[in-house]
Amino acid sequence: MITRKQDILVLSVFTIKITTYSITKFLILHFNQLKLLLNMKIIRTFLILLFFLVQTSAFAQGYDKIYNYNNGVAKVKQGNLYGLIDTDGKEILAPKYETIQAFRDNRARISKDGLWGIVDINGKTIIPIIYEKIAPFNNDLIAKITKDGLLGLIDINGNVLTQPNYDQMVNVISIGIKVKKNDKWGLLDSRGKLIIPVKYESIEGFQDKEAKMIENSKMGIIDAYGKILIPARYDEIDKLSNGGAKVELDGKWGLLDHNYQVVAAPKYDKISGFQNRRAKIENDHKEGIITNRGKEIIPPMYDQITKVADIGYKMSLNGQWGLINNEGTVLVTPQYKKIGIFFDKKAYATKNGKTGIISSQGKVITPIKYDQVVKLNNGGAKIQNNGLWGLLDSTGKEIVAPKYEKMKPFKDGKSKVYANGKWGIIKINGEVVVSTD
What distance in Å separates the CA atoms of residue 186 and residue 178, rounded to the nearest whole number? Predict the structure, then answer.
């Protein structure tokens, strides 16, 4: 006969065992003892204790780690798995997830068995755990998802905006998302709507909401709304800073205006260096000038053309230089070995070994008869002939004939000069201060 004292001892042992094992293990391991207890007078007390243990087991569980609370929720760790509890210690999510990331907008990314989903702050599943990857949500609360190696889009509420159908997605700031499938590219807007069909071999970076695209190995331009601005028919397109574009086809270049209408068919070997809406053109190694509207103001017939600010152009032919104005009118036919830099609308010009001065209109100001002309700070010049020095004023007029063997640099408007074995002084305006006579 089992005494009451023994009954209490047995019950205490069982109670201790219940707190150290799960209820299920306890029932399996101690089935025979429980069967014996059914005949004991204390069964009622035991069942009450057992009920109490079952009801409180969820709250009695401890964790390996409890992280800081945030918005009333804390992450907990049990082994290598994670869960969530509220401020009362109640489990919101059991610790069975490999990762639980930080909440944003009351949403958190979670992973299990290598797959990802989203739960809200109450532990409710917003996005099922079926994706290989869920990227961070952007400012529009949209994220890229990956399933079976393909990419799509989903919003923070679990609405699939774009099914995972694409091999690659590339964000385009303020435009949308470029997408690639089967080596073809298209464009989605920021909400995942298809704007540009996925049929292009490439879509380059957008500038001013326009991008170059390639279809069937030919280049065109398309805008961010899917409108084709230039059909894909060219080998190369270079957009111009002032609008329009240069286009290449079969090795020849042409021009499109700011509406991308053809103003010069591709017929030039080269179009380069647009300035003030004009560019240099080249054919068969001969240069000319064309406007951005496609008008040839100088045909490609010169060996070299150089821009002259506010005047026009210097052009070279067979080693001789001339002048053309901005309208394409020839001011000076190519006849000078050299035309220098223009200052005050004048430039030194050299011909047959002699130097003079010409105007920006090609008029001879100073006869082309001096061996050397050296510019002075007052706009005049020192001139030399047969080893003797003289002076020009700022208009190019000769004010001192070449007669000095030496002429020192001018200082304070005066220069030491040497002639007839004596030194003298002259002013920059030609006035004699000390004569050499």
Answer: 6
